[in-house]
Amino acid sequence: MKIQTAKTAGFCFGVNEAVKKAFELAKSKEGNIYTFGPLIHNKEVIRKLEDQGVFVIDDLNDERIKNSTVLIRAHGITPETQDKLEGLNCNVVDATCPFVKKIHNLVREEYEKGRQIVILGDPSHPEVIGINGYCNNEAIIIESEDQARELCNRLPKDAEISVVEQTTSSINKYAIIHDIIDNSIDKPVFFDTICSATIKRQKEAEELASAVDLMIIVGGKNSSNTLKLYDLCRSICSRTFLVESASDLDSKWFKNNFIVGVTAGASTPGWSIEEVIKLMSDINLNENEAKESDFAAMLEDSLTTIKSGEVVKGAINKIDDKGVYVDLGFKYEGFISVDEFRPAPGVAVELPKIGDEVEAKVVRVNDKDCEVILSKRRIEYSKNMQQIEDSFNNKTPITVRVTEAIKGGLIAFAGGIRIFIPASQVEMRFIRDLSKFVGQDFEVVITDYEKGPKGRTKIVGSRKILLEAAWNEKEDAFWGDIYEGKVTKGIVKSFTNFGAFVDINGCDGLIHITELSWNKIRKPQEVLSIGQEVEVKILSFDREKRKISLGYRKEEDNPWKDAESLFQVGDILKVKVVRFTKFGVFVNIADGIDGLVHISQISNRRINNASDCLELGQEVEAKIIETNIPEHKINLSIKEVKAYDPPYAEEAESEKPKKERKPKKEKKPEEETFQQDIVSSGTSIADILKAAGAELTAEEDQ
């Protein structure tokens, strides 16, 4: 019999930390120590903890927990439970797994956005109960394909849902549920929250089960991740057995010589696994095979697989001033220097969070300190250089961070690779001051890529190309979907004396001043302000000249809408004088409605100007004598109600000082005789003028 053991068998990081804290608290002997619920699903560990004075408590009403130390297990708790424990004056020691805490934060953020939370997992599992507490216990919890289909039938197609998974979920099982949801809901958001150690454990168990004749799963029968391992392996290897300890092994299983695989759940301590393997070795009659099966030897052998230059993935389990520490699933721990997380020279470090997964290259394996030195930058450099080459060859965009504005352009970096962006390629128009772009992230296309001597490479990028392409695409989409009467939104861009220009998806449209308000206004600033978002209607457009006329005033606000029924010929209204003209006066009838009183309808006398009888702002009564509502015209008469006459001419003359009349000039006798001769002779004035040598027209001659 040959025994093969999975590398990831044993405690996961979260469980290991929780157990470690429990034993540390037990050594401190500071008052009573309790765990809220079983720390892990393993009877052996719980029994050892009780021997050390750490006890399980499930009821918050238990008087023993008041003023005591309470350890929160790796599964986590709800915010409500946390508040209750603090209210009982408990010293709360939080050992919640970093992966689970990450889910708590995700669920809280998505719930605050108003999205429906969906949890894939066991609704009775303490981890799922804790997660649900971070969305006010309003999550929809499903664990089967049928429940997923039922959910999709119940929710509208455009439902905004965010999906998270229990950390110990089965990858294969929930991949199918993901597909069901994705095919039924328009835009679901999926978060990959299965623990990386769980994924690795399941993949290794799957590979191991397919290569052996018999599988042994070591772990608690009430442990979720252990049961999932059992189901997974049994679907591949029919001879799969679940044991909680070495005492559950049956020697009959190993009568024939074959290959046996061993793996364990995340809640299984190392000593339990060693006991199982030791007993299996004792059962084996072949001494050489028994030595080969020694657990410690196999574990040490597994460590030799980590080699320099290898690319590894792992979850961050600790962060300090020097850098971050990565759980690689082995005895060794990975370390990445803090400077590796600097996106560009001179830019602040952007550290990840505990629980985040990182990919890095092994630089050196330090056997003395049991540490693996990793480099995140080296693997990113290769990826970014490949992206830059692809961008140059295929004109695909890459994201860069601007670090410096220099004469002639910008200096940017993509994963530590320096890129120059000329000033003419930063915006669609020339920008003189480029300093505002420093610190920004944006996309560029590589336009020049030349490898020089000693590894020096000239790389030039353009942002302008992408901006122009986006502009053209947006403009084409806009003009392809425009029609008269369409209602859309835009931003007020600028003003003129005759109206306001509005930006609609990058295209400018004009609201004429007459389309801004139903009331008469002098300038557009009376209605709008720069930067204001407005809803406008397309009145007309010219696709070739790229001109758009817009309307802003709403038809429902039109004061003439009900004028037909409100104002009838013969109605007498109280009106206000608002404007004089040569032919009369305009009076205000109601908000937004003016009528005309012709000059002949003001007074019973003949007047030259309406201002002779009326004043601006004066209120008078007038009678409607004619209406043309479609053309917004109403004519009125003031004099038919009460005439406003100017003072009499004689009265006006009497008030003026009288001018002295000059005495008439007496005619000379010869002049009087001359006039009489002309009259008596019948000679016309024209004949006299001709005689004087004057030239007359035909009309004058007549």
Percent of residues in β-strands: 25-35%
Radius of gyration: 47 Å
Order of the strands making up the biggest sheet: 13-14-15-17-16
CATH superfamily of the largest domain: 4-hydroxy-3-methylbut-2-enyl diphosphate reductase, catalytic domain
The number of domains is 7
Mind summarizing the main beta sheet? 5 strands, mixed, barrel
Oligomer: single chain
Shape: elongated
CATH fold category name of the largest domain:
Cobalt-precorrin-4 Transmethylase, domain 1
CATH class of the largest domain, named Alpha Beta
* Annotation field: number of helices: 19
How many runs of DSSP E, i.e. beta strands? 32
Distance linking N and C termini: 148 Å
Share in helix: 25-40%
Pairing-aware structural class of the strands and helices? alpha/beta
Question: Low-confidence parts lasting 5 or more residues at pLDDT below 50?
Answer: 285-296, 298-304, 649-656, 673-683, 688-694, 696-700
The CATH architecture of the largest domain: 3-Layer(aba) Sandwich
Average pLDDT figure:
80
Describe the structure.
With 702 residues, the protein is of the alpha/beta class. The chain folds into seven domains: 98-194, 4-hydroxy-3-methylbut-2-enyl diphosphate reductase, catalytic domain (Cobalt-precorrin-4 Transmethylase, domain 1, 3-Layer(aba) Sandwich); 196-303, 4-hydroxy-3-methylbut-2-enyl diphosphate reductase, catalytic domain (Cobalt-precorrin-4 Transmethylase, domain 1, 3-Layer(aba) Sandwich), CATH 3.40.1010.20; 311-378, Nucleic acid-binding proteins (OB fold (Dihydrolipoamide Acetyltransferase, E2P), Beta Barrel), CATH 2.40.50.140; 395-468, Beta Barrel (OB fold (Dihydrolipoamide Acetyltransferase, E2P)); 482-557, Nucleic acid-binding proteins (OB fold (Dihydrolipoamide Acetyltransferase, E2P)); 563-649, Beta Barrel (OB fold (Dihydrolipoamide Acetyltransferase, E2P)); 670-702, no CATH class. It is 29% helix and 28% strand. It has 19 helices and 32 strands. The strands form seven sheets. It has a five-stranded mixed barrel. Strands 20-19-18-21-22 form a five-stranded antiparallel β-sheet. Strand 19 (409-414) and strand 20 form a beta hairpin. It is elongated, with a radius of gyration of 47 Å.
